Protein: 3-isopropylmalate dehydrogenase
Organism: Faecalicatena fissicatena
Amino acid sequence: MNLKIGVIKGDGIGPEIVTEAMKVLDKVGEVYGHTMDYDQLLMGGASIDVHGVPLTDDTIRRAKDCDAVLMGSIGGDAKTSPWYQLEPDKRPEAGLLKIRKALNLFANLRPAVLYEELKGACPLKEEITEGGFDMMIMRELTGGLYFGERKTVEENGVMTAYDSLTYNENEIRRIAKRAFDIAMKRRRKVTSVDKANVLDSSRLWRKVVEKVAGDYPEVTLEHMLVDNCAMQLVKDPKQFDVILTENMFGDILSDEASMVTGSIGMLASASLNETKFGLYEPSGGSAPDIAGKGIANPIATILSAAMMLRFSFDLDAEADAIEKAVAEVLREGWRTIDIMSEGKNQVGTEKMGDLIAGHIA
Ligand code: NAD
Ligand code: IPM
Ligand code: MN
C-alpha cells in the first residue's frame, strides 16, 4: 500500500521526535511492504520564518491532498522567541488552530494508558495505579473558547478582554456520537465533563449528550463537573473509560492525565473529521526548554503514528506492531529522562527511536 503522509516537523523538539516516528514508520513499511510517500509541510514558527505566517493556503491544500498528516509540535518560548512579537493571529499557535478548523478536525482522541512498565514514573501511589488504567479523552477541538469571538477594548480608561465560549447542538452532538461509538468498542462507559453548575454552554452540552446516550443503551453515561474530574483523575484514574469534554477542559485534563501515565512525552493524539483523514501529533508542546538536546521522549509521536495507521489506513496489525514494540522497549528497561526511574537505562531521543524501530518484526 502507498501511504501519502503529510509531515509537519514543527518547532522546538518537533523535528527531533518526528524524525524518530518516521524511522519507525519506515521500518513498518519495510517489514509489511508499504511505501511511505511523505510530503514535508511547514507550519508554526518554521512557517513564519519562511513565509511570515504560521500557515499558508499551500500547506492546507497539500495537507488535504494527503491521506493523513503526522505532526510534531509548534511554538516557542514566549519570552525570548521573536514569533511572540507578532500579533496573536500571526503566531505559531494560530497556525495550529487554523489547520484544525480548515480540516474540520473536531474530534481529538487522547489515549492515556499507564504501561505496567512505567509505574515507577507515575507520581501516584502504587495502590491507586494497581492494575493500571486505560482511558480515552475525547476532546472537542473546533469549538468553544478557542474559536469564539475575542476582543480587547478600552472602556473608560480600563482595558477589558473578551473570549466567548459558544457551542451549538450540532457541534455537541457529533463529538458525543463519536465518544459513544468509541465507548462501544471499549468498556462502555462515558464520563461527560462540564461545568453545568455555572455555564449555559455546559447545560446545553449535558442535554445534547443525554439525548445521544438514548441511542446507546449499552453505554453507561455519567456527568461530572470539571473541577471534580481534575481531582478524580489523580484520586482514582481507573474509574474512567471515555472522558467526553469541550475544547478547553480537554486541553487541561489531557495534560493532567498524561502525567499520571508518567509523562507528557507518552500521550499520543489523533484529530479526526468525518472522513478517514486525520492529523496525528503528540499532545505535548515544542518543549523549548529541552529542544536541541536530543533528550525528548519520542514515544507520544511514535504512538500517534500508530494511531494514524489504525484510523486513517486501517492497518491494525502494523499499528499493533508499533504499540507492542514500545511496550517491549519499556519492558527491557530503556527510558528517556522524563520517564526515568531507578535501575533503568537512560537513552536519548534517537536511541529510543532506534530501539523501537528495531523491535518491529
Ligand atoms: P510543553 O508541553 O512544550 O512543555 C511542558 C514540559 O513538558 C516541559 O518541561 C517540557 O520539557 C516537557 N515535555 C514536553 N514534551 C516532552 C517530551 N516529548 N519529552 C520530554 N519532555 C517533554 O508545554 P509549554 O512549555 O507550555 O509550551 C511550549 C510551546 O509549545 C508553546 O509555544 C505552546 O504554545 C506550544 N504547544 C504546542 C502544542 C502542539 O503543537 N500541539 C501543544 C502544547 C503546547
Ligand atoms: C494542544 C496545545 C494547543 C491547544 C495549543 C498549542 C494551541 O496545547 O494541542 O493541547 O491548546 O489545543
Ligand atoms: Mn495542550
